[in-house]
Amino acid sequence: SRSFHSSCPAMVEGHSVHRVAAVHRQKLVGKVFTASSPNGRFKEGAAAIDGKKYHSIEAVGKNLFAFFGEEATKLVVVHVHFGMSGQWSIFDRRKEEVPPVTSTTRLCLEHEDGLVSHLSAMTVRCEEESYYHEKRKILGQDPLREDADPEDLFRRIASKRSAGRSIGDIIMDQSFFAGPGNIYRAEILFRAGVHPSTLCGELGGEELRRIWQESVSLLRRGFLTGSILTVDPEEAKALGRPGMRRYIYNAEACGRCGSRVVSWDLKGRTCYACPSCQPVPSHSQDVKFAPARVFLSHCARETLEERERQGLEKLTVSELRDRLVKLGLSTGGKKSELIARIDGSGWRVKEEGQVQDEKNEEEGKKQEQEQEQEQ
């Protein structure tokens, strides 16, 4: 069905990879497939698994390992790493029209009952089963795996070798934490109350356990919901922002305390922190913090209401033009020009005034009701 197909979205962080593995176990594992490589970039690998039974699949962090063959013989493993935009889609000819393959489709699996699977990914390689065990030794602890060993992770983080590295660096190192990416890094450390620039040598056992517990909790929620949702619904409602999905990632202000979120470059990726909720280490004077600049994210989607609240930069060009039409202003120009035009209209002051008027009106009604009850 279409909903089944949509459960395999573009990959970004580890929870999505585990979701794909779960769908494959349910729909594909145990079946024998005809395999081909539409774009020719996995020709030998497709030939190696053609006509073999899909035996099993394992997810480790952002990596998938699909095994083909029989237990009695040597299994062949297909290693998949999606990168930022890979996809392993599944279709059913009996219920829907299968879209044509594209120039990025490296593997096509077809079953006689009508199931078709298209794979596009940054890395797709076919190896002997021993390759999987070699890779497992290199990859770190996956918060979503039952065989994860957090105590081993804590020992490695506390070692002299890691003492001079920041936890913000370590949590993105897949040889330590297998699964979290940039969005989860920001939110896990925020919820744990640990600043990303804190050196591993300064972290205590309690802080490490909080970081691991938040990693498990948030990635598990992502696996169950299919979305990177890090704010507890009850807290979002209490804060008056029921649509809030993340605290500080790609945000100008902290969703919890309202302080200005800061960001900086850490090995080519933008790192986020709230200086109030995450104590800044004394050595951080060497880090060049700057007010976080928001952008329209296609990986971490938000409601229109939330995006409007956080800044015009998060709106699409179409949404900006709709706002300009309501303001009676010209809709021509680049996105930066549209934003400047809206900002120049004083719309934010007007909206804030309208919100305050509504609050005053609501408060007035409440007082009238209380007076009536007293009478």
Automatic annotation (TrEMBL):
Residues 312-346 form the SAP domain. Residues 349-369 have a biased composition (Basic and acidic residues). The keyword Lyase applies. It holds the Pfam family H2TH. Keywords: DNA damage, DNA repair, DNA-binding, Glycosidase, Hydrolase, Lyase, Metal-binding, Multifunctional enzyme, Zinc, Zinc-finger. It comes from the Eukaryota. GO terms for biological process: base-excision repair. Residues 349-375 are annotated as: Disordered. Residues 247-279 form the FPG-type domain. InterPro entries: FPG_cat (IPR012319), FPG_N (IPR035937), H2TH_FPG (IPR015886), Ribosomal_uS13-like_H2TH (IPR010979), SAP_dom (IPR003034), SAP_dom_sf (IPR036361), Znf_DNA_glyclase/AP_lyase (IPR000214). Its EC number is 4.2.99.18. One of its GO terms (molecular function) is zinc ion binding. Belongs to the FPG family. This is DNA-(apurinic or apyrimidinic site) lyase. It comes from Hanusia phi.
